[in-house]
Write a structure and sequence with these properties.
InterPro entries: C-N_Hydrolase, C-N_Hydrolase_sf, Nit1/2_C-N_Hydrolase. The protein has one domain (5-262): Nitrilase/N-carbamoyl-D-aminoacid amidohydrolase (4-Layer Sandwich). It is α/β, with parallel strands linked by helices. It has helices at 18-34, 53-59, 68-79, 163-171, 185-203, 253-261, and strands spanning 5-11, 39-41, 82-93, 96-104, 110-115, 121-123, 129-131, 143-147, 150-154, 176-178, 206-209, 213-215, 221-223, 227-229, 235-238, 244-250. 45% of the residues are buried. The chain starts with a strand and ends in a 24-residue tail after the last helix. The structure holds N-(4-carboxy-4-oxobutanoyl)-L-cysteinylglycine. N-(4-carboxy-4-oxobutanoyl)-L-cysteinylglycine is lined by residues 44-45, 49, 51, 120, 130, 132, 157-158, 161, 182-184, 187, 220.
Length: 285
């Protein structure tokens, strides 16, 4: 197997407009580079945390006009690192966007795109409620891409709750899985660490989850705690609650070691029962 690498996760408090976020994210990406990171990731909604739906639709841009894309292409070239732009809102038509991740190679080329599949339409306690599907159109394709150190599977935030997607990515060859997020405080406190560790353990893959933190426009609060998890489920780094960067040295052989000990990915069984059996293969496989 190829030698190891250093991963760097950016944790930030995105504002509602692109300009300050480009500055914030760029500073933190450069900090990650200064700490030796070869693969640097930013959270979901790196471009804006805009709670107002009409304003979000107004500010979202199609790919050809989105200011974050040239900024991140430049950052990839400047740092010579692989770069995951966790997500930005890409305008699809007058009434909808895609919540899209972009993977840049060190030459600044976009080598993969992923549109968040599962929409966060939930009602929490104390009237905290979300209807992501009113502004965003869900993706329909699981996406993997090849890094120099092995295959990457891409997911976003609420996708974390859908184990069948992670299994499909692992069966499609993913050894590392990204989960850029903007988790709510109450659901983060209750579920974030255990779900990320579970996805890593179930798939025998490294999980990289860069997160939004702090208080955003109109009092929206996010959980933080960007996490790097090993295929055995160990938390290698936790970003706490403040903006910053976390890093860890990643040894890809740990994937084979975990899967060698517990070959659960190869132990699927067909079974009959009360509902449809979840899909077991990545799209296109
Ligand atoms: O709404 C915002 O402004 C920012 N949040 C997001 O963009 C997304 C979709 S609304 N958040 C999540 O998916 C949180 C999931 C989550 O917290 C969970 O699964 O518990």
């Amino acid at each position: 197997m190829t030698a190891g690498f250093k991963v760097g996760l950016v944790q930030m408090t995105a504002a509602r407009d692109a300009e300050p976020n480009i500055r914030m994210a760029s500073d933190l990406v450069r900090q990650a580079k200064a700490q030796g990171a070869d693969f640097i990731l930013t959270p979901e909604n790196t471009g804006m945390m805009e709670p107002n739906k009409p304003a979000l639709l107004e500010k979202a841009r199609p790919e050809a006009e989105h200011p974050l894309l040239p900024a991140f292409a430049d950052l990839a070239r400047e740092t010579g690192a692989w770069l995951l732009l966790g997500s930005i809102a890409i305008k699809l038509d007058a009434t909808s966007c895609a919540n899209r991740s972009f993977l840049f190679d060190p030459k600044g080329q976009v080598v993969a795109r992923y549109d968040k599949i599962h929409m966060f339409d939930v009602d929490l306690k104390a009237g905290e409620s979300y209807r992501e599907s009113k502004t965003f159109r869900p993706g329909r394709e699981a996406v993997v891409a090849d890094l120099p150190w092995g295959r990457l599977g891409l997911t976003i935030c609420y996708d974390l709750r859908f184990a069948y997607l992670y299994r499909a990515l692992a069966k499609g060859g993913a050894r590392f899985i990204t989960v850029p997020a903007a988790f709510t405080r109450p659901t983060g406190e209750a579920h974030w660490h255990v779900l990320l560790r579970a996805r890593a353990i179930e798939t025998g893959a490294f999980v990289f989850a860069p997160a939004q933190c702090g208080e955003h426009a109109e009092g929206r609060k996010t959980f933080g705690h960007s996490l790097i998890v090993s295929p055995w489920g160990e938390v290698l780094a936790d970003g706490g609650t403040e903006p910053g960067v976390i890093t860890a040295v990643i040894d890809p052989a740990k994937v084979d070691e975990a899967r060698g000990m517990i070959p659960a990915l190869r132990h699927d069984r067909e079974f009959s029962g009360p509902g449809p059996v979840a899909p077991l293969r990545a799209a296109g496989e």
